Amino acid sequence: MYGKAFAPEYQGALTTLSVNSSLTDVLAQGLARLGEAQRSGTREDAARALLAVAEAHRRLGNVAEADRAWKTSYRTARSVGALGAMAWALWSGGTLARQRGALNLAYRLLAHAADLGERGNDVVARGYSLAGMAETGRIQGDYKTVAALHEKLLAEARRRGEARHTVWALEGIAQIHRNTGSYDTALAMFGEAAEIAAKADDRRGHAWALRGMADVLSIRDGATGQALSLLSEAEATCREMKLSSALAYNHKMRGNVLYRAARYDEARAVYQQALAEFEAMSEPRGTALSRLGLVKSLAHLGRDRSATVADLTELRSTFDRIGLRHARDMTDQALTEFHPTPPRPTAAPQHPAPREVAVR
């Protein structure tokens, strides 16, 4: 039913690159192709090479370099009216914005990318951009709004036999089920995603699916050993492919599993490791989530209660600012556990209406 996974973000002369290509190889080949395109004056080829450069930098955690590359890709594509290449550049920029915790900006960039993909008859760019919008809403906890879009994109991906996109959609829907307490459904969907990814040789998607399975097995069954084993398998892939962000999230999840098992000292050490990794990438969402786990672990290890409450209150404001409703709710639970006075309620995040994005 599904063919081998492919990486549509590697375009032009870079289509021979695999979804599993080492990111250092992707970066080297992207820069080489960029130099060739600049020398020959083929600006659309340059824009598409810059897309691969931007994505390699983003996944390696090189935020400033990724930001420069996607913007240059967009401007280069715009100079020759290449709508499809413009869409892909905005998709990369929107994905980077989400990774950095700028969720409203991510939503706007991805909305414009979807529009350009449709106008430029690039079905895959449009689909990836809509998927990015759905993921942004899911991260914010806006499940009611994005659940239907997730399901629609899953159906489209299944119909076209696109393994990588099917895996992504399954993982997104599974995460919604996990966060709303439907653990059996979540585990089944993460398991299906892992199976499809393995058969399609999508190692990145497989690593994320294993992480999801570990999370559910830990929280539903208390299966700490099995969860840690799955995370170790996923970590090996992340290290081999140099997936810096995925590796940091893997470590944060390992901290979660250890915390649930009341192994607080081990959890503290792993949360500190994840925190350092996220800070090195200037990744505020992962930074805040790792801090939350670290603060809770330290509280159980005897840290002063007032310091714990002060940190949790600060983190709650951070999650509100970023727009992470689920994380804010977890912080409320921690405040209730460590402090008797509940925080005041906050309005749910609202997606802004897309407006023109200026890339200078």
From TrEMBL:
Superkingdom of this protein's organism: Bacteria
InterPro entries, A to Z: TPR-like_helical_dom_sf, TPR_rpt
One Pfam family this sequence matches: TPR_12
Region entry Disordered, spans: 336-360
This protein's name: Tetratricopeptide repeat protein
Species assigned in the record: Streptomyces durbertensis
Upper classification of the organism: Bacteria, Bacillati, Actinomycetota, Actinomycetes, Kitasatosporales
